[in-house]
Fold each of these.
Amino acid sequence: MLFLSVYSTPKKNKKSIYKLIKLNAMRKSWLIVSFLFLGLIGYAQVNTLEINAEGSTQQISKNIYGQFAEHLGRCIYDGIWVGKDSKIPNINGYRKDLLEALQALHVPVLRWPGGCFADTYHWKNGVGPVADRPKIKNVFWGGTVENNEFGTHEFLNLCEMLGCDAYISANVGSGTVGEMVDWIEYMTSDDDVPMANWRRQNGREEPWTNVKFLGIGNESWGCGGDMTPEFYADKLRQFSVYAKMYGGTKFQRVGCGSNGPDYNWTSVLMEKGRGSMDALSLHYYTIATGKWEDKRSATGFGEDLYFGGLKQALKMDEIVTKSSQIMDEKDPQKRIGLFVDEWGIWTDVEPGTEPGHLFQQNTMRDALIASETMDIFNHHSDRVKMANIAQMVNVLQAMILTRGDKMVLTPTYHVFKMYAVHQDANLLKDKLTCEKYKFGEEEIPAISSSSSIDKNGKIHISLSNVNPNKEIQLAVKLNGKNIKKVNSATVLTAPAINSFNSFDKPNVIAPAEFKNYKKAGDNSLTVTLPAKSIVVLEVE
Ligand code: AHR
């Protein structure tokens, strides 16, 4: 319009029209430039991680990286224990390959003997000459016959070999106070008393010094006795009196906590039982569909259940936040720790295996569920003082799978190894601003992260890009500290969302050196995270 009118206008007016055109063009290019600029700034702002590198005092307990081993399926037998006469290479009955893999993981604490099994377990059946130990039926897990070959000595010696603390789950559901105090005396007393003497007679002179945690029942709202919170709170008070008397200051007493978001259970326990416990547990399992009765395959899934799994796992944040708020009301000093002593993804069992043995594969999705969850625990480390993934070997979201003499390290194992750098380091507070990973009508943050500084001043930054469809560029800025250098960088990713390590192809998913980062100023880095990947950087 403007151009047409120039030709039909008297000469003296033409100048001003040309001026107008020039002005308009300038305005347009300014607009374009501004849009581009704002777009770029906008892009940079979408994915930024600002880490406060100064003055951190909140320690991430190493026990957040704890494990759980139950007499369930092939976790203990075949997984950990093959017996001294086995053809499978072993050290005093423990699988040698497994011991080495677990030692590399720096397991801080191991919970045993259950789980639901714990409230049916009578420890006296599992000590003394193996030939004399009675067999029992594992009523919760497939009705399998348990020969009690792996008992208290075998468990506590394993903890010594791994250099980890022991978390014993005492039988409240079908056991007695007397049985529990006898067990405590057997494990920890150095006196001339019947149980300590029986231990000596069974070949162990000194008491074990690694018994640091005693669970007073497991899932007492369900398999551990189907109790109301009020009834359980009374049980806790009763058992706790004697646990304290016999255990002294040697261990922490753990009250049975809620089934995920059962906040009434948490409130009642904090109201009536807080004087009788040093920690309160919490169990939350991820089911990709969100429905307990519809678990689905561990490996045969598409993006819907990949997204679903990650989304359901993020609920841990809400559950821990609300539980902490309830605990804060009665325990503002945070004396009582929150122990998430069972967590992980629960899928259908592998085809052809016993349903009661909970043997499932482990994919890239599960590695991301682990990294997301451990970022949540790191951020809540003011209250979350322990977490135990379920379970260590051959059960649910396992670190390790075994078959005969073969062993596979799962993607979850690799995440635990990469995240071990956060054990006992101080949390660095951070602010993550990031784009969303959208699937259908739903969305979750595309990035998960947490950072800490260890006692040597090294900073570890964990980053996960959960979007399986695109790489993401992230600007990482350390406030209050210049980055001298990046000491190491490791990435875990996979060909597909449901890739896994099998006995035939054990290294489909394995950590590799990560190079896709560059310095972007004195205290900043630009990191390009591959789709569906986990990266851990060490900077100083
Ligand atoms: O980890 C498997 C089972 O899950 C445990 O035995 C029980 O505590 C929970 O329900």
Amino acid sequence: MRIDIVTIFPEYFGALDVSLLGRAREDGILDVKVHDLRAFTHDRHRTVDDKPYGGGAGMVMKPEPWGEALDAILDQVAAPGATTDADGDANADGDIVDHDAASVVGTGLSAGAADARPRHRRETDPIVIFPSPAGEVFTQAMARELSGASHIVFGCGRYEGIDQRVFEYAESRASVRLVSLGDYVLNGGEVAVMAMIEAIGRLIPGVIGNPESLVEESHEDGLLEYPSYTKPAEWRGYAVPPVLTNGNHGAIAVWRREQQLERTRRVRPDLLPPAQ
Ligand code: SAM
């Protein structure tokens, strides 16, 4: 899977070098490119925000750099056989892409261009995801669905968010989703994107060594997972439930199912189907 991330804080994504996702990148399962939004500005201060129309507190991300960043990424994909980065340089997998903004000026469509027409979508076309507290809530089911995508572009908002026209423009070029991590407000989209990439990435075949470990997890079958234990059998006066130590796999399966139901009922009753 290819992942492009547009952000004003590329350094946030250094964590993608470690652990299972880091290895997936080394193995070529994940191809991650991080793009600095400020590389698509043209003023001395590399401005990406401005005051909101209509007044109000805070700043809004300007559409122009977003339009150019999306063009740079999507033009490259649209061109069959493209093997170079948006700036035309060969790119080592996982590098932060060092865009030469000048080279993407005039790459065809620009934000608000009259010729930004919706076009026929192919299955391999990128999905553009903007994290937003005003989006649909991210779930395990969505992570599983997105783990089958071949290319996802993430656009990280900051300040009061991104000018609405950017979403409309992106929609003219790709499938667009606004996705929320939950009902709270973060300072920016970076943390949300990290969480989504981790949840999606671990479902891609080859990323987790033993795929069976994915099957019984929380949210996979609509319930929370049962409690887990390891050695020693007794620790600081707390014993492992005897059913787990007697080798009766039928009894263990029944106990685990009961635990799943009990835990879900207690902590997340909203996940259970309504009582008949
Ligand atoms: N003014 C916006 C609102 O009320 O909907 C909140 C903007 S927030 C301070 C800045 C950015 O953080 C958003 O554009 C989005 O990228 C990200 N963000 C904040 N909360 C989020 C959440 N719950 N899920 C996903 N992204 C979030």
